[in-house]
Amino acid sequence: MDAHMKAAISEARRGLAEGGIPIGAVLAHGDTIIGRGHNRRVQRGSVVLHAEMDALENAGRQPAAVYRESVLYTTLSPCAMCSGAILLYGIPRIVVAENRTFMGEEELLRSRGVTVEVLQDPACIQLMTEFVCAHPDLWNEDIGV
Predict the structure, then answer these.
(1) Selected catalytic residue, list 52, 106, 107, 141
(2) What is the dihedral of CA 92, 95, 100, 105, to 10 degrees?
(3) Is 130 a catalytic residue?
(4) For residue 28, what are the β-bridge partners?
(5) Residue 77 and residue 99 in contact, taking contact as beta carbons nearer than 8 Å
(6) pLDDT in tens, 36-78
(7) Nearest 5°: phi and psi at 74?
(8) C-alpha torsion sign, points 65, 69, 122, 13
(9) How far apart are CA 12 and CA 35, in angstroms?
(10) How far apart are CA 76 and CA 5, in angstroms?
């Protein structure tokens, strides 16, 4: 596993330690992480701060060319909102740690030309499975169920 995905997993664990949902993401431009984040809906009382949105926010304003040359690493398959941001900013590739506990809009992303690589990382699957079992109401709120 590369350093960028390790950083995303570290963000997920940070979110869990803060009492939030254990999903992390980083935006990398070349070898440099330009934005990192984790799901902060609980911590900030936010309706939109999924991990991918937090990483994009923390990257700050970037020229369009930077997004078009970047890779988003996320510990969980991106939902419709986060996939919309990926498409809006033209991010060409995402690396997903796992999609067994939640299947996001991967087919939409692929249909729009985004390369989606899924790793099925056992540690991430276990982390999310345990969280969903322990906090089903919070998880269902996060995914809009």
Answers:
(1) 52
(2) -10
(3) no
(4) 33, 71
(5) yes
(6) 999 999 999 999 999 999 999 999 999 999 999 999 999 999 9
(7) -140, 145
(8) negative
(9) 14
(10) 11
Cβ pair 98, 129 in contact under 8 A: no
H runs (alpha helix) in 25-114: 41-44, 51-59, 64-68, 80-89, 106-111
Query: Is the distance from CB of 36 to CB of 25 less than 8 angstroms?
Result: yes
Query: Cα separation of 66 and 70, whole Å?
Result: 6
Residues 120 and 98 sit within 8 Å (Cβ to Cβ): yes
pLDDT, tens digit, for every residue of 86-141? 999 999 999 999 999 999 999 999 999 999 999 999 999 999 999 999 999 888 88
- pTM of the predicted model, to two decimals? 0.96
**Phi–psi pair at 33, nearest 5 degrees:** -80, 120
